[in-house]
Write a structure and sequence with these properties.
InterPro entries: HTH_LacI, LacI/GalR-like_sensor, Lambda_DNA-bd_dom_sf, Peripla_BP_I. The chain is α/β, with parallel strands linked by helices and 338 residues long. It contains 12 helices and 12 strands. The longest helix is centred in the N-terminal third of the chain and has 16 residues.
């Protein structure tokens, strides 16, 4: 088994320098030295002493959270759960908005690592991007080698613990409700293709379509930004392409609200002319007119679970906690009237 002295020899530095880096000491070292030592740690498969790490990291009271956009109600609710637990445990939370830019996420991981945060939580969707995933995993692994903790929300191929919302099951539940109501001409307002959340929710919709012997052709799926304006743009495109649509399934509630605005502007009633359903059950979903049928994910609980995993005693293997989805029936869905 490799020792700290072995790592020091391989990296060409003192044992004290290796100790500072692998144990997360607040003393500043150059990035070049840090990378050299971490490379030696990886090559020699050196396992740091847990007690030494605990002593060196005793000053850490900050948690870094990377979200796509905290102004999005989905991430606002998750962040509320994170901050509640952080406050209870005397931690400060640093929130970083990536705006769904993978390069920015990589930069934030480096920045948070440089600030010696106790844990990093990635609360945004995973990406279908192998090169990005490989780069992010390398940075997270280097951070974890110094005693840092990582947890993620959603489906990622990343190191660390995970909280998994039931996106596929939720897609199935909302799709089954729409098809069971008798709708045959259904349009889907979808989020960007590169997000694993989009893939999973669409997979659930397609499963429901198969079970109800309905079709969900690609021409009836419009991809747009995961927000209210994106929902409006996608809904307009769907209606222009197929005026026979009797139902629109939006992959989040913000997009569903955009859909409602377009239908209202075109003089179409909901659900009289077109039914509209959403996903996530944001607080506003019950206050729009008509109140939105949607899928409830316990977003505050998801945030609380993610930070609890990150601050908990480390486990030898990554943990995955699944969070169930539940359909919430309100007034925006009815049987087709034409």
């Amino acid at each position: 088994m490799a020792t700290l002295a072995d790592v020091a020899r391989k990296a060409g530095v003192s044992a004290a320098t290796v100790s500072r880096i692998v144990n997360g000491s607040p003393k500043i070292v150059s990035e070049e030295l840090r990378e050299r030592v971490l490379r030696a740690v990886q090559e020699l498969q050196y396992v740091p002493n847990a007690h030494a790490q605990l002593l060196a990291r005793s000053h850490r009271t900050t948690v870094g959270v990377i979200v796509h956009d905290v102004s999005d109600p989905y991430f606002a609710e998750i962040t509320r759960g994170l901050q509640r637990v952080a406050s209870e445990q005397g931690r400060l939370v640093i929130i970083c908005n990536s705006y769904r830019d993978p390069d920015r996420e990589l930069e934030y991981v480096e920045l948070l690592r440089a600030h010696q945060v106790e844990a990093i939580i990635l609360a945004g969707s995973g990406y279908h991007d192998p090169a990005f995933t490989k780069s992010l995993n390398a940075k997270l692994s280097a951070y974890m080698a110094t005693g840092g903790r990582v947890s993620v929300v959603g489906r990622h191929k990343l190191a660390g613990d995970a909280v998994m919302p039931a996106n596929e099951e939720g897609g199935y539940l909302i799709g089954a409700a729409v098809f069971a109501a008798g709708h045959k001409h259904v349009g889907v307002v979808a989020a960007p293709r590169q997000l694993t959340t989009t893939t999973d929710r669409l997979a659930g919709l397609r499963r429901a379509a198969r079970e109800h012997r309905r079709s969900l052709p690609s021409k009836r799926i419009a991809y747009a930004e995961f927000d209210r304006d994106g929902g409006a743009v996608a809904t307009a495109a769907l209606l222009d392409a197929d005026p026979r649509l009797t139902a629109i399934i939006a992959l989040n509630d913000s997009m569903a609200i955009g859909a409602l605005s377009v239908l209202r502007d075109r003089g179409l009633s909901v659900p009289g002319d077109v039914s509209v359903v959403g996903f996530d059950d944001m607080p506003i979903a019950r206050d729009v007119t008509p109140p939105l049928t949607t899928v409830r994910l316990p977003l505050v609980e998801i945030g609380a679970r993610a930070i609890t995993l990150a601050l908990d005693t480390p486990h030898p293997s990554p943990r995955v906690e699944e969070v169930a989805a539940k359909i919430i029936h309100r007034d925006s869905l009815s049987t087709p009237h034409n």
